[in-house]
Design goal:
Domain Glycosyl hydrolase family 13 catalytic: 14-413
Structural class: alpha/beta
Radius of gyration: 23 Å
Protein name: Alpha-glucosidase
Strand order of the largest sheet: 11-10-9-5-2-1-13-12
Bound molecules: 1-O-alpha-D-glucopyranosyl-D-fructose, calcium ion
CATH topology of the largest domain: TIM Barrel
Oligomer: single chain
Keywords: Glycosidase, Hydrolase
Largest sheet: 8 strands, parallel
Family: Belongs to the glycosyl hydrolase 13 family.
Number of strands: 21
CATH architecture of the largest domain: Alpha-Beta Barrel
Pfam families: Alpha-amylase, SusG_C
Shape: globular
CATH superfamily of the largest domain: Glycosidases
């Protein structure tokens, strides 16, 4: 059994602040809006809140481009609002996780303004510059650039700067000790305010080989292998641990875990004194085309990671966040017939695995994709610049739009659906991104009143996890790996054993299990009945049941 820790036992609720609750009618969610909803969050039973970045930012990438790490984005409120929010969170016994975006800053950060102003400016080495008289630097691919180029020419000093993300997100030079000291000071500033955890954005990319050697053709298909886990990453993490993490009762989670299981262990194993948790992308990457996923792969990915982390290290469990489309639309079934049952099944899954579950706002009520069909509806820079790039590359644009419709990040960023009033109670003004039309059917207020709602099922499942340590720490054993429809596993801790049965399909399916003889009452079930005989159980479409075996 792994060592115990509060951050292993929690359930994280992730809030995209722009879209959660607008308190002043400007159409943009804000900190006071979150404060208004703290009792709601408390009622979910979750005990950690992670907010996407709330720092001052020109919003080229919705806050992932930071212009001041010690100030709050004006649209979101003030530092006083932040202090009130943090107090409100702590008063309710909830921990707070801060997003730390330090692979890059905004080009509007004072550091970058200084850095680009002249070659001998003291901030010059805060970023990666390549003097143009040395010729063009070797190609680097960019996630968000409209040409797919990570080097941007800047005429002021006749040099290129590096940006793995957008042109307005220049990469910070971590090889410069001054940059690292700035980051640790920023983290201490927030830890002194009382934040309980840090989510390190795009962190596997910070350390770089600053000779920028030529990389093999097509390397971007294995981007993490080439961009991730740079030469000095671990020594920087040990430094961060010594200066910051070890001094407070905080944990830190890395976004990205390298490209191998060993990479991931090297980040989080306790003996390394680096980070406490990491999340890998293999689960969300299961759906990255119109073909969707297949259950065999899903089982394989989750089983592989669980097995590897059974004794040492700790990972996050999630199927959604602000970088992907909605969980029900990708992994469940968002048709009116199956939307609710499949949402309940997926939440049952996330909350019955080992690892800290991260639940994205709106998934507790089964929010679905918005399915835009015209490029003018999109707001996300990844979609807008991806569109420009596809056009200039001569891609099949009808296919491109179909993919965007299913997979775009905007699908997962629409306003929270609170009630059936105009704009779902999110704002009294014009929402920055439209509310999904289905808000009259899918909203918190209606689901609160319905004991069989997705929301009440979620609350019940969180409670079950809290009351059964076996669901947190218990050993995971996959049953009948080859079953085409059903994901079945047990969780075992000392004498406690729980059986989890999940039908991932839209048809009935049977599974034969000798264990069933011992079954009495289900702990939780997203249907009213259990259809079992002596040793066979038949699951309805997307049926999800937990049984106590011992
Ligand atoms: O994402 C980092 C990351 O690796 C992304 O490339 C992710 O795979 C991509 O967004 C999918 O389209 C983080 C944040 O989560 C993301 O929201 C930011 O846009 C990005 O860093 C830059 O800060
Ligand atoms: Ca607002």
């Amino acid at each position: 059994v792994p060592d115990k820790a509060w951050w292993k036992e929690g359930v994280v609720y992730q809030i995209y602040p722009r879209s959660f609750k607008d308190s002043n009618g400007d159409g943009v969610g804000d900190l006071n809006g979150i404060i208004e909803k703290l009792d709601y969050i408390k009622s979910l039973g979750v005990n950690m809140i992670w907010l996407n970045p709330i720092y001052d930012s020109p919003n080229d990438d919705n806050g992932y481009d930071i212009s001041d790490y010690r100030a709050i984005m004006k649209e979101f409120g003030s530092m006083e609002d932040f202090d009130n929010l943090l107090k409100g969170i702590h008063d309710r016994g909830i921990k707070f996780v801060m997003d730390v975006v330090v692979n890059h800053s905004s080009d509007e950060h004072e550091w970058f303004k200084q850095s680009r102003s002249s070659r001998d400016n003291p901030y010059r080495d805060y970023y990666h510059w390549w003097p143009a008289e040395n010729g063009k630097p070797n190609y680097r691919w960019s996630f968000f650039d409209e040409k797919g180029e990570a080097w941007k020419y800047d005429s002021i000093t006749n040099a290129y700067y590096l940006h793995y993300f957008s042109q307005k997100q220049p990469d910070l030079n971590w090889e410069n000790p001054k940059v690292r000291q700035e980051v640790y000071d920023i983290m201490k500033f927030w830890a002194d305010k009382g934040v309980d955890g840090f989510r390190l954005d795009a962190f596997q990319f910070v350390s770089k080989d600053t000779t920028f050697p030529k990389l093999p053709e097509g390397y971007q298909k294995e981007i993490i292998k080439y961009y991730g886990m740079g030469p000095n990453l671990h020594s920087y993490l040990k430094e961060m641990y010594n200066q910051v993490l070890s001094k407070y009762d905080v944990f830190a989670v890395s976004e990205g875990a390298g490209s191998t299981l060993k990479d991931a262990h090297d980040l989080v194993d306790a003996s390394r004194n680096e980070l406490q948790m990491a999340y890998h992308f293999e689960s969300v990457d299961l759906v990255n085309s119109l073909d969707g996923y297949n259950l065999a792969n899903l089982k394989e990915v989750f089983t592989k990671w669980d097995t590897s982390f059974a004794k040492n290290g700790w990972i996050s469990i999630f199927l959604s966040n602000h970088d992907v489309a909605r969980i029900v639309s990708r992994f469940g079934n968002d048709s009116p017939e199956f939307r609710d049952v499949s949402a309940k099944m997926l939440n049952t899954f996330l909350l019955s695995m080992r690892g800290t579950p991260y639940i994205y706002y709106g998934d507790e009520i089964g929010m679905t994709n918005i399915n835009f069909d015209s490029i003018s509806q999109y707001k996300d820079i990844a979609a807008l610049n991806g569109y420009k790039k596809a056009l200039s590359d001569g891609e099949d644009m009808a296919l491109f739009m179909k993919k965007l419709n299913f997979l775009s990040r905007d699908n997962g960023r629409t306003p929270m659906q609170w009630d059936d009033s105009k704009n779902s109670g999110f704002t009294s003004g014009e929402p920055w991104l439209p509310v999904n039309d289905n808000y009259k059917d899918i909203n918190v207020s209606a689901q609160n009143k319905d004991p069989n709602s997705v929301l009440n099922h979620f609350i019940k499942m969180v409670k079950l996890r809290k009351e059964n340590e076996v669901l947190v720490y218990g050993k995971y054993d996959l049953l009948q790996a080859e079953h085409p429809d059903i994901y079945a596993y047990t969780r075992t801790l000392n004498t406690e054993k729980i059986l989890v049965l999940l039908n991932f399909t839209n048809h009935e399916s049977k599974i034969e299990l000798p264990e069933i003889k011992m079954i009495l009452e289900p702990l939780i079930n997203n249907y009213k009945t259990v259809d079992a005989t002596e040793n066979t159980i038949s699951l309805k479409p997307y049926q999800a049941i937990l049984f106590k075996l011992n």
